[in-house]
Structure formats: structure tokens, C-alpha cells
Structures
1.
Amino acid sequence: MRCAASRVAGFVLAGLAAGALGPAAAFAAPTTPPAASGGTSAADLKSDGPTQPAKVQDGQYTDKNGDPTYHVTDSGKKVDWYTMSGYLRYNANCIVCHGPDGMGSTYAPSLVDALKGMDYAHFAGIIVGGKKDVNASQELVMPAFGDNRNVMCYMPDIYTYLRARSDGALGRNRPPEHEPKPAAFEKAEDACMK
Ligand code: HEC
């Protein structure tokens, strides 16, 4: 899905990239070829569907469009680190309106439904800039998180987690097991939160 928001996201994130918010911004331009990476491990995987991993680099999985995606194994019991991180960040920043496990509330829509077919650029545009439903009788506002590092630095993580929920690859509640936290994640996190 492409929309005006994806272009906005590109611009806004390009601006953020000029600052310290590197890791999230890295996903704003999925068409950019991955930088030649000395010393990091990348592998091409067989991709079985649009949201399935086509590639893994330093514990982060991406689909064939370069969008971040999940890796759920052991019959839904074990997740990649980014999905785990996304679960934690979702619970810190989004649950208050969107409800436990992305299920939605009387105030905000289900993200399990909303993420179906939503690409990363579109998602990022909404998170960065917010969204307002002007037609609703009650004014519904999705706040803009563009200057909130606790969200911006973990945007791919939150997207990855919600995508797993949306695809039904991950059930409700905390994932019981996860892949180890990659060193590259820690490095990017430090740089982003500085
Ligand atoms: C203060 C309450 C609130 C918080 C906190 C909040 N949201 Fe929202 N969000 C909303 C509302 C209300 C809407 C619906 C807005 C509309 O319909 O225009 C929405 C819409 C969205 C949409 C678009 C859904 C669609 O169907 O297009 C996404 C994606 C989203 N939120 C993700 C998030 C994520 C991720 C977080 C945490 C980082 C978050 N939201 C935190 C209230 C919130």
C-alpha cells in the first residue's frame, strides 16, 4: 500500500536521520540497497509470502521489499529480538489507547486489523505525524510521536511485533522465548537514544 503518508514519512525520517535517529530512519527508504557491511552477517532466505522474511542481517529480518518483518518459530513460542522489543515498546507506548495485544479499544482501532497490508512507510507516516478522524462524532486523535525517541528509536520493532500479531503468527500475551539481543541492536539503540 502506497499513500501520501509514505512520502511524508520519507521526508520526516530523512530529517531525523540528519540528527541522531539513525536506526528507525534506515527503514524509511526500502529501495536503498543495504550498505556493504564489513564484518556483519547477512543471509538471503527463501521468502514464502509478502510478509515473510527474505533476508536476515544481525538478527533483523526483512521481507522482499526491505520492510522489517518477524521471525516466529517453535509453533509461535519463540520470536526474533525485534518482535520481542516491539512487544515491550508497544506495551509502554500504545497499549493505553489500542488495548492489550493490539486488539483495539472503544477509543482506538485494532492494530491487528489495521496492519493487514500496511507497509512500513505508511505505518511510519502515521506514527511520526499522527492521525485525526475528523468525521467521528467523538474526536479521535492518534498523537504524533515524531519527537518521542522512546517510540522513534523502536519504530521497526513495533511494526514487526504488530505485523506478527496481524498475520496471526503470534498469539496474545508476552512471547515466551526470544532470539538473543543482537549486538547491532544495542549499538543502534545507544546511538539513537543519545
Ligand atoms: C492517545 C491514544 C493513542 C495512543 C497512545 C496511540 N494511538 Fe494509535 N491511534 C489512536 C486513534 C484514536 C487512532 C484512530 C485515528 C483515526 O481514525 O484517524 C489511531 C490510529 C492508529 C493507526 C492507524 C490505524 C488505521 O486503521 O489506519 C496506527 C497504525 C496506530 N494508531 C499505531 C499506534 C502505535 C504503534 C502507537 C504506539 C507507538 C499508538 N498508535 C499510540 C490513538 C492512539
Note: The chain is about 40% helix and 10% strand.
2.
Amino acid sequence: MAKSLEDLQRQCHRVMIAYWRVAQRKFPSLVGVPMPELKFNLRGRAVGRATYRAGNRLHQTTIALKNEYLLSNTVEMFNDTIPHEVSHIIAGVLFRSTGHDGPWRQVMAAFGLKAQRFTYTNFIPDEVKLRVAMKGQKHD
Ligand SMILES: [Zn+2]
């Protein structure tokens, strides 16, 4: 039976939390930083977008995801888009990163992900346990 959009959105939360926990183990200074708010209101070409203020640990951070992509490319959303955007948040908050720069690549590497806009996932947190598919998609 197909999962509902609401089920998939709840699963996105669990995936984000799983990556956040991995990051907390790799970057202890992340402890105490609030997790991003997850929204599903993204329009346009991008499938995910991270909003943060670089270097501001207390600032509200947001990850916006695209519902249509979640429905059509669920595995890529979980294994690629979400860790990509989580990496933007963490790199921005901890290392004043902007864009796909060195600190962002460092966080991606900590997840075992290739640091490129179109990523191939070769690491999956135990909590997620999904198989991997490869497909290039636009990120912001
Ligand atoms: Zn990006």
C-alpha cells in the first residue's frame, strides 16, 4: 500500500533527526543547537533549500522540501536531499559556511557523502536503513 504524503513527511522528520544525531557525534559543538524546522512548501525547480544565518548558533534554521519530489523520488529525498540540506545548516551554523564551500564539504564527508551538488549516497545512518538510488537533482 502506498504511503500517504503525511506518512512521508513524518519519515522526512525521522531522517533529518537521524542525520542530525550523526552530526552531533561528529561535531560536538552542535550539541545544544536547535534542529532545523522542516517545511514542505518549496516551489520552483529546487527540491530542497536550507535557510540559515551563517555563524549564528541561535538563529532559527529551516529546511524546505518539495512535496512533489518527496512523492516521486522518495529514496533520493531521504538519502540525498535531506543530508545535503542538513549539511548546509550545520556548516552554516558551526563554520559560517555559505554555499557548497569547504565547510559544507567537510560535513558532507562526515556523513560519508561525496561533496558535490548531485550526490551519491554511500553512507546511511542506522536509523534510516534505506537502499540507495542515484539521480542528479537540483539543490540550493
Ligand atoms: Zn546545496
Note: The CA atoms of residues 91 and 103 lie 5 Å apart.
3.
Amino acid sequence: MNKKGHVLNAVLLSIGLGYLFVPVGDVETFKTIIMIGVPITLGALFPDVDTAFGKHRKTLHNLPVLLGFVAFPYVFGNLEYVWIGVLTHYVLDVAGSKRGIALFYPLSTQEYGLPTGVTVSSKRADFVTAVVTVGELALATMVVFELPQLVFELGRQLVGL
Ligand SMILES: [Zn+2]
């Protein structure tokens, strides 16, 4: 996907996550959207830096880079939420773009993609970006609302209550 697609994806995802975390739709919701939206959008732009430095869809499109951004806030105390932008960039490249990404680079140069992808120049690129974003938000909603209950139920069954 191109820069426009990644920004569209990051902004729509941030708005959705803002409403997911603070559903009231007031100033706090708006502040949350800005607080997470700026780092998510910057994170979503980061992987394509490898068009200039390294091998595109390999050097900065892999799991070690993502894990680095997940760990960064715990190690250095900043760059929270940037990993969400990097992750959503990968998801959009894998699910929305015809060419995949080398998830296991540098161990393997094999690129992984889904058949749902379209070419970057396709007229349907924006539509596919919106569909991928809706899918991500549906997954995020499940994680936020269903996962705690699922873990609770599993724990309850494990202790035999
Ligand atoms: Zn990319």
C-alpha cells in the first residue's frame, strides 16, 4: 500500500480505537484519538523507510522490528502506541496489497501476503484499506471486550469454581 493508504488506515484505526477506549464521544475521546493517533500514524509510516534504506518490504517489514517497537516503551519509557502503527502497516501490506512482506526477514526473504490484496495503484485500494481497517477494529473490539471475560472464565474453570 502507498503512503496515502497507510495514513488513511492509521487515522481511521485511531478514531475507532479512541471510541473503543473512551466511548462517550466527548473531549476525552477526542484527546485519546490525538494521543494514540499521532504515534500510530507515525508508526504506520515507518516501515516504508526501507524504500530508501535497505530492501523494501523486508528490512523494516518483519517481526523483529515489530517486537522492537512493542518492547521500546518498557525499555526506554516512550514511543507508546507506535507499535500499533507498525503492526497495522504490516496488516495492510499483507491483507490489502498484492505483494506480501518478509515477516521473518533476515532469517528468510520469503514474502507473505493474502489473496485479498490489490495492486497499490488499484482503484479499489481505498476500499480495501477501509475493509481491512474495519476488520482490525472488529478484532480490537473482541480483544478489549471478549478476551478479559474469556481469560476470567478459563481461570474460573481451572480453579474449579
Ligand atoms: Zn509497507
Note: The chain has one domain: 3-158.
